[in-house]
Amino acid sequence: MSSAKKSDLSHLMWTEKYRPMKLDEIVNQKEIVRGITNLVKSPDIPHMLFAGPAGVGKTTAALCIAREILGEDWKKNTLELNASDERGIKMVRERVKEFAASVKLATDKDFDKPKIIILDEADEMTSEAQTALRRIIEDSSKTTRFIIVCNYLSQIIEPIQSRCVVFRFTRLPKDDVIDYLKMICEKEKVKYDERALAQIYDSTGGDLRHSINVMQAAAGMGSINIANVSTAIGLSGRSKVSEVLKLALAGKFHDARAKLLELTQVYGMSESDFLKYASQEAYEMKLDRPEELAELMAEYDYRLSTGAHPEIQLAALLAQMGKIGSKKN
Fold this sequence. Notes:
The chain has three domains: about 1-170, P-loop containing nucleotide triphosphate hydrolases (Rossmann fold), CATH 3.40.50.300; about 175-235, Helicase, Ruva Protein, domain 3 (Orthogonal Bundle), CATH 1.10.8.60; about 235-325, Zinc Finger, Delta Prime, domain 3 (Up-down Bundle). It has helices at about 1-10, 15, 30-40, 60-70, 90-100, 125-140, 160, 175-190, 195-205, 210-220, 225-235, 235-240, 240-250, 255-265, 270-285, 290-305, 310-325, and strands spanning about 45-50, 80, 115-120, 145-150, 165-170. Helix content is about 60%, strand content about 10%. The longest helix is centred in the last third of the chain and has 18 residues, at about 310-325. Helix 13 crosses helix 17 and helix 14 runs antiparallel to helix 17.
């Protein structure tokens, strides 16, 4: 009964309900799918490393590989971990090592097939944890295959990269994402405006998972039209990003900070999203010296990624933008 309920819940989320089950169902990524399919058929399957933007099919491809290699019992013999939740060396030594070291019973019909460990968001792991992981990959290679998933290949240490076949996933083309969204709309019998689907793609930048979530939120409001999509992705808040930039560049620090707090606290925009949208708006504003602002945003983006206090850092960013704006006068 409980498993049935769990299955029903997963089908409420369109991202799970319409997640491809086979490699040939993955949206675009044709060259990668072809390469993976050939590797899966080989007698000695290598470790794999998938890198690329969010929501383009990396984790889905890993799950499809597990199904293809292990068949019906794939869940029992697959360990899926999210390294961003458990990023330390303890997780690597305990959970991964324990799973990799456990030996299958000789009566198991899949005894000749390797266990699979899918390590998602591996670029969030510390370098010490990655070093430990490298040793575990070596020690368990007789029984286990690793599929390591990350957004930034440069954050994965070289010894791990050299032990894996690397696949670089690319951002999905607009037509492919819109076609997939249309397919979901037709299966769910939801009315949609094609312009609204294009708007979803533009706001998510080709992240199919995010696009489906936004579309489902808009569908919950009645139909997928431009007004509902705008509400779902908070464009009313995003449109205020350019106001914040203009106020900051004009030297009106207090007004800019008040607008920024409205965005983050009222509209719920994350600090990293603010920086992303601010970067896009800055280029559209056609400033005299856009390189100064780009350098500034890169610095504060790095500060946020290292764990600095977001509100303090963005306030400092606005103050620095005021100095840039004053140079023009």
